[in-house]
Amino acid sequence: MIPFLEDSLKEIQKNTEKKMIHLFTASQANATSENRKLLIKEQKRNSVADLESNCKNYLDKFATSAKGKWVKKHRKHLKV
Questions:
Q1: Taxonomically, which superkingdom (predicted)?
Q2: pLDDT averaged over 10-residue windows placed end to end, the chain, 80 residues
Q3: pTM to 2 decimals?
Q4: Distance between CA atoms of residues 59 and 68, nearest Å
Q5: Distance between CA atoms of 67 and 2, rounded to whole angstroms?
């Protein structure tokens, strides 16, 4: 009976160690994945902000350099 209990305890210990390793590595992989997603979102926000800033600068320079009715008409289209 004792060898049976000893084997059972070893099996339980082995399974527990496997589960602990799995939980630790899985949580690290999950954290890495979440960090990657957050980084991509931040890069997207920065890219959109840069693009909006560049468009605004272009429209401002366009308005100061060009004159006439056609400019007003095209500025409306560019703002969209």
A1: Bacteria
A2: 79 90 78 87 93 85 76 70
A3: 0.53
A4: 15
A5: 97
